[in-house]
Amino acid sequence: SRRQAAKDLKGKVKASYESANMVLPIDILRTFFMQDPILEHLSEMYCQTSDETAKRHVIESDWNKVRRAILRRALAEELYPMFWAEVQDYLIKMSSQVVCEATRVKLTQMLDVK
């Protein structure tokens, strides 16, 4: 009843909050990437490309390999951790909103005695 509903809500909030604190090393995430669209887009912007076909593609050259290595490193060490920190902040804010809304509903129900 009420206690069970409160336990369920508490469990959901706890799970949501704990997911925001997960530590995911980039190497683990990299195994899930079939293709990294951000890296591909940055490669097209910063590497020499060929327009011979309908779609642009990065030319295989020593300099482009160096450029792509720099882009991978920037993504792995700077941008993706920064993105993940923003996701964590968002999850924490959203879990707080869920708790506040659930608390508001419960208090309203408790005070709305007819």
Write a compact overview of the structure shown.
This protein has 114 residues and is mostly helical.
Would you write up a description of this structure?
The chain contains 4 helices and 2 strands; from the N terminus they run αααββα. It has 114 residues and is mostly helical. The two termini are 20 Å apart. It is elongated and about 75 Å long. The model has no long low-confidence stretch (mean pLDDT 81). The protein has a two-stranded antiparallel ribbon with strand order 1-2.
Give the strand content.
under 5%
Q: What is the helix/strand order? A: HHHEEH
Q: What's the story with the biggest beta sheet?
A: 2 strands, antiparallel
Shape: elongated
Q: If helices are DSSP runs of H or I spanning 4 or more residues, what is the number of helices?
A: 4
Number of strands: 2
Radius of gyration computed on alpha carbons: 23 Å
The poorly predicted ranges are none
Strands of the biggest beta sheet: in what spatial order? 1-2
Structural class: mainly alpha
Please bin the fraction of helical residues.
over 70%
The N- to C-terminal Cα distance equals: 20 Å
Integer average pLDDT: 81
Q: SSE layout and pairings?
A:
Elements: H1 2-20, H2 26-30, H3 37-46, E1 49-50, E2 57-58, H4 62-111
Antiparallel strand pairs: 1-2
Helix pairs in contact: 1-4, 3-4
